[in-house]
Amino acid sequence: MGSQSCSSVPPEPNRGRQLSLPGYRQTPVSESGSVRHAGRVDFQDRSDAASRLAPLVDSAVAALADPPQAITVFAKSPGGTVIGVAVASVLDSSLVNVESAADVAAVAQDLLTDRLVIVVDDGVETGRATFGIGQALRARAVTTLWLAVPVCPRQTEVTLANVYDQVVAVVRPLARRSLRWHYQQF
Fold first, then answer.
1. How far is residue 137's CA from residue 107's CA, in Å, rounded to a whole number?
2. Where are the domains of the chain?
3. Tell me, what DSSP letter sits at residue 29?
4. Which residues partner with 29 through β-bridges?
5. How many alpha carbons lie under 13 Å from residue 28 in its C-beta half-sphere?
6. CA–CA distance from 136 to each of 25, 119, 123, 140, 159 (Å)?
7. Regarding the domain delimited by 46-182, which CATH topology (the fold level of the hierarchy) does it fall under?
8. Helical spans, DSSP H, in 70-182
9. Radius of gyration (C-alpha) of the chain in whole angstroms
């Protein structure tokens, strides 16, 4: 039997590093909190993502056989605000900021009835928050509901399709990972 030594020195604390899980690729983060990328990223920042998503949403709306007379864009704040402004601007629509599904109850019904409602965020990982917002909007009798995000993993999109009629995304990775991975500055 080998001898074990005891040390009175406590182990060094984990200074912001994440534990490595087998088969999981982690997002490298610098001391300032920004992502360190070895290669190409999808977006420089949220403004870049907004400028790439807004024309896709506009094209999707224009491609409808029966375009809606009115559109309301819900920006999930804080991350989706910049993106929501760009999408609402290109669609010439109303913009509503919400932080969670609970905020949907305070929205005036005339912003929901007989309209295309589009929920916008800076991306989804698990989709839990956007799913909740979608459910709350359906409970308010929204008939046509879309989700527009720069990043939507195909793995998550399957679940979101239970609430949203259409998902518009710039990037659709197979599996979900931190949104920081897709942005140079997040």
1. 10
2. 46-182
3. B
4. 35
5. 5
6. 34, 12, 19, 6, 16
7. Rossmann fold (3.40.50)
8. 81-91, 128-139, 154-160
9. 20
Dig out the tokens for 51 from the structure.
Answer: 């400028």
Cα 94 to Cα 42, 85, 87, 114: the distances in Å are 28, 9, 10, 14
Pairing of strands 94-98, 166-171: unpaired
Peptide bond into 78 cis (omega under 30): yes
Distances (CA, A) of 128 to 34, 95, 154, 163: 24, 22, 14, 12
Note the pLDDT tens digit of each residue in 47-99: 999 999 999 999 999 999 988 889 999 999 998 999 999 999 999 999 999 99
End-to-end, the C-alpha distance of the chain in Å comes to: 52
Q: Cα separation of 102 and 60, whole Å?
A: 28
Structure tokens at 68: 């809606």
Q: Which residues contact 44 (CB under 8 A, 6 or more apart)?
A: 183, 184, 185
Strand duo 94-98 + 144-151: pairing: unpaired
Which pTM value belongs to this model? 0.77
Q: Rounded to whole angstroms, how far apart are CA atoms 22 and 111? A: 47
pLDDT digits 0-9 by tens, 146-156:
999 999 999 99
